Amino acid sequence: MHTLAVQVEDNYVQGFMKYVNNHSENITISRDPNLELDPYFYERKKELHQIRADVKSGKMEMLSEEQYEKEIEDFFLELEK
């Protein structure tokens, strides 16, 4: 069995569901609660895991709270110029 993510145009949902119902012995539909809350959940998850890996490997620097505050303060001062 394979699990697939399927995107269906709003105006075709009824037709798609009719097809699924006609082939219900071969198709199981389940809703992913993560995608209901955030349609980009898995893309964001992948990106966050990559950022975390980059920080751990030293490829990306992670700022301390104090460094972050200083960077933001400098940024806004630069914008005001």
User: What does the main sheet amount to?
Assistant: none
Please give the oligomerization state of what you see.
single chain
Beta fraction:
under 5%
Portion in helices = 55-70%
* Number of beta-strand segments: 0
Mean pLDDT: 92
Low-pLDDT residue intervals, each spanning 5 or more residues: none
* Element-level helix/strand string: HHHH
Instruction: Give the N-to-C terminal Cα separation.
Output: 61 Å
**Structure class:** mainly alpha
Shape: elongated
Please give the radius of gyration in angstroms. 22 Å
**What's the tally of helices?**
4
Describe the overall structure:
This protein is mainly alpha-helical and 81 residues long. 59% of the residues lie in helices and 0% in strands. It contains 4 helices and no strands. The chain is elongated and about 65 Å long. The N and C termini lie far apart (61 Å). The mean pLDDT is 92.
Task: Give the topology.
Layout: H1 13-22, H2 33-37, H3 41-57, H4 65-80
Q: What would the keywords be for this entry?
A:
81 residues, mainly alpha
